[in-house]
Amino acid sequence: MHYCGDYRTTYKDDMKIFQTPFVRVWMALFLLFMLAVPFLASNYALSLVTQILIAVIGAVGLNILTGFTGQISLGHGAFIGIGAYTSGILTIKLGVPFWLALPCAGLMAAFIGMFVGIPSLRLKGLYLAIATLASQFILEWIFLRWEPVTGGSYGLILDRPKIGSFVFSADKHYYYIVFGLTILAMLFATNLVRTRTGRAFMAVRDHYISAEIMGIDIFKYKLLAFGISSFYAGVAGSLMGHYLMFISSEQFTIGVSIQYLAMIIIGGLGSIIGSIYGAVFMVLLPEVLTLVTSKLSWIYPNISDFILSIQDGVFGVIILIFLIFEPDGIAHRWRLIKAYWKLYPFSY
Amino acid sequence: MDYFVQLIISGLVIGSIYALVALGFTVIYKATRVVNFAQGELLMFGAYVCYAFVVQYRVPFVPAVLITMVFSASLALAIERLILRPMIGEPIISIIMVTIGLALVLSSVVKAIWKTQIRVYSPKLFPQTTTDIRGIPISQEFIWCFVLSIILLIIFSLFFKYSRAGIAMRATAFSNQVAQSMGISVKRIFALSWAIASVVSALGGILIGNINGINSQLSHFGLKVFPAVILGGLDSILGAALGGLIIGLLENLGDGFFKIYLNVSGVKEVAPYVILVIILMIKPYGLFGTEEIERV
Question: What is the reported pTM?
Answer without folding.
Answer: 0.89
